[in-house]
Amino acid sequence: MAAYALPALYAVLLWWFSTGLILLLDHRPRATHAVSMAAGTAVLGLSLWAIGASAGDASEAGAYTAFTAALLVWGWQEMSYYMGFVSGPRALGCPPGARGLARFRAAAATSLWHEAAIVAGALAILALTWGGPNRFALWTYLILWGMNLSARLNLFLGVRNLNAEFLPEHLAYLGSYLRTRPMNPLFPVSVAAAGLITLALALAALGDGATAHEVAGLSILATLMALATLEHGFLMLPLPSAALWQWSLPKVARTGAIAPPGAAACGEATCVREARLAEAESR
Question: Of 175, 177, 178, 179, which Cα lies nearest the Cα of 263?
Answer without folding.
Answer: 175
